[in-house]
Amino acid sequence: MLNLNLVVEDIEVKDVNKNDVIKIYNSITKEKFFVGNKEYMNIEEVYDRFLEYYLTEGEFFAKFECEHKFIGFLRGRVEFKKSNKVWINCIHINKEYRNKGIGSKLIIKIIEFLKKTYDIKVFYTGILNEEKDNLRFWKKNGFCIERISKEFFDINEKKKDMLILVKQ
């Protein structure tokens, strides 16, 4: 578990705790948010992701709160090697808070925090090839396509490519 606690303007970025699992589940279910290789996760699977983070060194799982209201979350991991790097598994902002620059502000400040605190040099994320809005978000925040993993995802028995994006 890697702590990720900071404030970005009026948004608190805080480590997820057991009580937040239901908030995350409700958020991804309400908005049909894609996580992993499927379009739906049950509450047990969300809780398993929480336990993975809690028990694994280098994993981070943070919630975003504005005026004590849950507005999204971020999950990823740090790899401490010759060149320290971060994999951002997912970032999710609740629908009513999107297209206001919040996601960009958060990602920029979180990257700054990770660079300063953990000497991170490289940041990666992977997205579904057909997620054009997602690609636009990451490119706007300084990420570029490094490679394509062909047929990485198997969604509803259809193979789909993953774009690997990088920021250095």
TrEMBL record:
Residue ranges of domain N-acetyltransferase in the record: 11-168
InterPro entries: Acyl_CoA_acyltransferase (IPR016181), GNAT_dom (IPR000182)
Name of a matching Pfam family: Acetyltransf_4
UniProt name for this protein: Ribosomal protein S18 acetylase RimI-like enzyme
Organism: Hathewaya limosa (Clostridium limosum)
